[in-house]
Specification:
Layout: H1 2-5, H2 15-26, H3 28-39, H4 58-71, H5 78-81
């Protein structure tokens, strides 16, 4: 619904929501029916790992998606949108901290 209402916004799902979307896509007839019902058209899945689908700031895109959902009156389930156990950018010296990040914040 959020994609249908904002066709040019380049909205992006969370990792968990994307997994669900992929499963839904495999049921092509119900997926097409859903798209026609909520959007009046087929909503294509455009992965962000292709040149045409690349999103420069995935976190901002996901935030824009949540805001678009709220604006449309759709429920936002935090467990599906907030990554559990992922880095909070505290830069505590973890292996995947940016090389130039200040440590111990």
């Amino acid at each position: 619904m959020a994609c249908a209402l904002n066709p040019d916004a380049r909205l992006s799902p969370s990792k968990r929501v994307d997994v669900g979307w992929h499963v839904f896509l495999t049921y092509t007839r119900p997926y097409e029916e859903f798209c026609r019902k909520v959007a009046g058209r087929f909503i294509h899945h455009e992965p962000a790992d292709t040149p045409d689908g690349a999103i420069s700031d995935p976190v901002a895109a996901m935030g824009a998606t949540v805001e678009a959902m709220r604006a449309a009156g759709l429920p936002v389930v935090p467990e599906l949108w907030i990554p559990a156990g992922e880095c909070s950018q505290c830069y505590a010296g973890c292996a995947d901290d940016p090389a130039d990040a200040p440590k111990g914040r």
